[in-house]
Write a structure and sequence with these properties.
By secondary structure, the protein is of the alpha+beta class. The protein is 47% helix and 14% strand. Residues 16-32 form the Prokaryotic-type class I peptide chain release factors domain.
Length: 133
């Protein structure tokens, strides 16, 4: 993965933030929406695209576009930096392959303890029954 090449493929759009905030919110477009077209990306090879699309399946739309937005700061430039940083972290995390799970054997002491507890509970229940002559 080439970060510089991916960053050149990003599309930014500035819109007005929603919610309360007075005059500044009403006249300044400080919210930044980042769009990344995963399917048409030249920075990722096919294997990386497949891995990212599997891990981020819930965040991609039907056209394979990943959208992130940021309106944390009053500055459009700062929001652009934040959303870009968040995007890079998200892509790097999705490109990491999961370690294969190693099956482990249940220790004999754990099995013995479980069976002893089970036997103790059964004896307790047995002692509560009526005695039949």
């Amino acid at each position: 993965m080439d970060k510089e090449k991916i960053i050149t493929e990003l599309e930014y759009k500035a819109v007005r933030s929603s919610g309360a905030g007075g005059q500044n919110v009403n006249k300044v477009s400080s919210k930044v929406i980042l769009s990344f077209n995963l399917l048409n990306s030249q920075a990722l090879d096919n294997e990386e695209k497949e891995l990212v699309s599997q891990k981020l399946a819930t965040r991609l739309n039907s056209e394979g576009i990943l959208s992130l937005h940021c309106d944390e700061d009053r500055s459009q430039i700062r929001n652009k930096q934040l959303v870009t940083k968040r995007f890079i972290e998200l892509i790097e995390a999705s490109l990491q392959k999961d370690k294969p799970r190693v099956a482990t054997k249940i220790p004999k002491a754990v099995i013995k303890k479980r069976l002893e507890n089970k036997r103790r509970q059964a004896d307790k229940k047995q002692s509560r029954r009526r005695f039949d002559f």
